[in-house]
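Hi support team,

I submitted a single chain yesterday and got back a structure, but I'm not sure I'm reading the token output correctly. Could someone confirm the output below corresponds to the sequence I sent? I've pasted both exactly as they appear in my results page.

Thanks,
R.
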Amino acid sequence: MSTSPLTIALELAACAVPVLPLRARKLPVGNCPACRDNACGGRPNMKSAGTCRCPAPCHGWAAATTEAAVLTSPAWATAWREARAVAYHPGGAGLTVVDLDNADAVTWARESLPATRTVATTRGEHWIYLGVMRSTNGVRPGVDIKSSMSYARWLGPGTGTMADLPDTVRALPVKERPTPHGGVVASAPAPTGGACCHRTPAYLERGIAMAEGRITEARSAIHATVYRTFLAVLSTHGRCGCLTDDHVTRLFTAAQAKGESPRHCTIAWANARTALGV
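Hi R., thanks for writing in. Yes, this is the structure output for that exact sequence:
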């Protein structure tokens, strides 16, 4: 007999792994109206639920929780009825997942990375390390990093002994690398001499939060909305050096929660940079 997603989630939560339900196509439950424009800040506390206190799951990874009372509350009942799988927030559990999306990526990992716990996926493997780093998609062909501000699908405990997060993995997001699709791995552009109008950190934070909200609220034309939002962010914040890779990760997370693939996000970001010359 198959085990229900909620049962799996409760077992993981009891082991201090923050979890959330996934609906069809590995997407998290949609954001709630109370969090439009990222009003809650979308931040996890690395122990339990995100700082968002909505009565229902929202903001993907930031909704992940270890609180059984939240998971079994009436507010989450519909989410679990619709759930097709369980996801977890690796960073909240003190972990980093190297997501290897194809056989070539798996071969590269076996030749280049220290052995650790591995979990089979539909097309490749998850390599799980002890330690937290920023999440970055497309660090090399077929390889994504899922740790802070990200979620990974739970596919079982895996096999092997979990190793500490090595420097070889921490170094993967440092440089831009070409992708097999003609784009570049997303990163914040270097300063180009433009004047900085960000007199306070709140100005930039408000701009990124508004961009996340614009993507989250889109009900159609998702591809076009993501591209236009990337373009708007780069036109305002892309020349003075205040935009960081963590800001880019937040935008990509919002886009992927709407169903965009890492490849489409990377290409949209690269096209926006090219259009603006940044």
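A quick pointer for reading it: The first helix runs from residue 5 to 14. Let us know if anything else looks off.

Best,
Support desk
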